Structure formats: C-alpha cells, structure tokens
Amino acid sequence: APEIRSRNSFDTDDKEERSSRKRAVKPPYRPPSSLERSERPLVSKLPFDFRFSYTESSTEVRPIGLRFPKYSPFGPGRLRREWTGVCAPAVDPKSRAAATEDELQEKRRTLRERIQGEPLTDAERKILVDKCQRPCTKRQINLGRDGLTHNMLNDVHNHWKSSEATRIKCMGVPTVDMKNVCYQLEDKTFGKIIHRQGGLLVLYRGRNYKPKIRPVIPPMLWKPPEPVYPKLIKTTVEGLNIEETKEIRKRGLSVPCLTRLAKNGYYGSLVPMVRDGFLRDELVRIDCKGLPRSDYKKIGCKLRDLVPCIIVSFEKEQIVVWRGKNHEKPLEEDE
Q1: Which of 55, 172, 213, 286 is the most exposed place for a label (fewest CB within 10 A)?
Q2: Under 8 Å CB-to-CB from 273, ≥6 apart: which residues?
Q3: Does an H or E element contain 312, and which?
C-alpha cells in the first residue's frame, strides 16, 4: 500500500511540473497592430505610382500644400517606396536614372499585352459575359464615390482566382467620366473590358493570367488626408468684373433646372446634356439636393474639364456653370 501511494504522488507531481512548463512556455496574447514595423518591407515592381484613388486624382493638378505631415498610409516601414503626401512613386524621384511617365506607360502596355494573349472570339466573349450576369452569379465589385481605389486592385485579383471575368458596378461621381474609369481599370489591373452597359462593366483577366503568380499589391491601411488644392470658385468669374459676377451668380440660381442628380446614380449622360443646354442658354443649373458637398464639387470639376465650361456657384446645393464669352456654337447644316 505505501508503494502505491508513493507512485500516485509521483505521478501527480510529474503532471503538475508538465502543466507548469507548458504554461510558462506559452507566450502572452498580443492583439495585432497595423503600426508594428515589419523586418522586411514589401517590394512591388508594378510600373505605376500608388495612389489612394486612380480615377479621382490627376497628375496634372499639383497641390499647393499638405494638411498634415507626410505619413505613409501603408504603415511605417511596410513598403519600399517613399510617400510624397499624394502618391508613392514607382521610381525614386531623387535618383538620377528616374524613369519617365512614357517609359512606365510602355512597360504597362507590354505587360498587359503579354497577359492578355490572343484576343477573344465573339463566342468566348458571349460565354464570359453571360456567366457574369446577375442570374448566374451575385459576386460583383462596387465602384463608388472614391472611384478606383488602391485596395480595389486586390479585390479584382481575388475575384479572378475563381473566375476568368468579374462584374464591376460603377455608381456616383466617377460615372461622369466613364472613359477614364475604363482606361484606369485596364491600365492598373492589366485586364480588358469585354462588356459595358451603362455603369455595369465586365473585366476579363486574360488568357495568360496565372492566379498563383499575382503581382505584389501592398494594402493601404487607411485613407490618407487629402492635400490642399487651389479653389474651384474665385472671387470673380474669368473675364468678368465683380458686378457682372454677382449678377451672373444671382441669375444662375433662377435659370430652369437642367436635371436633378440622384444619390449614387449613373451620370454618364451629364456631359452631353450640359453641352446641349448651352445651345439654349449661356447658364446651366444642375440640382444636387441630397448629395454631399464634396460629391457635387467633384462633379463640377469634371464638367469644367470635359464640357468645357466655367464654374459659377455651388450655393444652395446647385451646380451653376457658364459657357464663357468665347463659346463656339456648332456650325448649322446647309439646308
């Protein structure tokens, strides 16, 4: 009996020692943090500058200042590219052998041609488009007021893992310039748009696309603060004095409304509507009630470049644009 007790006590002591060892080895729990510095920063060889939005930002317009100090939205030490406050350039601008935009564009074109391979036949295109329609699949990517963002590139490649084409639904501000949306999608993802109906697009990945060998796209952890740009509306309208500016702004709010924009709607026909409106009157008013102020400011900026026209006012949730003094009327057809 004493031998059995000693064995039992030895077994219990051994179990306690083992459990204490296991508890000591187990590290304490640490929640994941996006601010932790990684040992090796990611290296991406994609031949374009990383921006928050590729459709809603322009390389031609330079900001006049920054609201906050330059802090990379990819996290500290996570990307081997310097953040300039607006973008993370593909080539360090300080280096002597900096590649020009034309060279980077040529690299993107050759890479896209290699991935696409031979063009699709009409039958293949029809099959892919039918597979992406709503009765067959519910998977789609929504492109909203921020346009084509950097993190959406990862979403596109994730969809291409399981299907050769993906459906993209465009809504809101970016749909004013659908040509630019289509160009940026093909340029940044190296895919091809094989179907377009209003704001609905079908993006094909290419014949030579390999899901296991996808490009390195570092995720953007937060939205960077927007820099300071020049004012859209100045004290006086271009070509007018102060009194004429006050009069034209007052008259612009009483002009009959051309159209009313719905929230998150499709605005692809807005530019031709404004051009037709200028044939009847020199001022055009667009009702934007219910839209955020930043949205109709972006719409006014796009109209200024696409129509082209001069922005008069954003008061009372209205966009008022003027065709200008040097507006050229279309030539009348001979009878």
Answers
A1: 213
A2: 258, 259
A3: strand 310-313
User: pLDDT-based confidence at 106, cuts 50/70/90?
Assistant: very high
Angle between helices 270-280 and 293-306 (to 10 degrees): 70
Is the C-alpha dihedral spanning 304, 307, 308, 312 positive or negative? negative
Tell me, yes or no, whether 200 and 261 share the same domain. Answer: no
Cβ–Cβ under 8 Å, residues 136 and 101: no
80 lies in a domain? Answer: yes
Cα dist. 327→314, 320, 323 in Å?
A: 22, 16, 6
Same domain, 171 and 133: yes
Query: Tokens in use for 166?
Result: 């993906």
Specify whether 176 is located in the same domain as 285: no
CATH of the domain at 296: 3.30.110.60
> Which is it for strands 257-260 and 283-287: parallel, antiparallel or unpaired?
parallel
Residues 6+ positions from 125 with CB-CB distance below 8 Å: 194, 195
Helix residue spans in 117-202 (DSSP H): 122-131, 151-159, 178-189
Residues 6+ apart with CB under 8 A from 124: none
pTM: 0.84
**Is residue 187 classed as helix, strand or coil in its secondary structure?**
helix
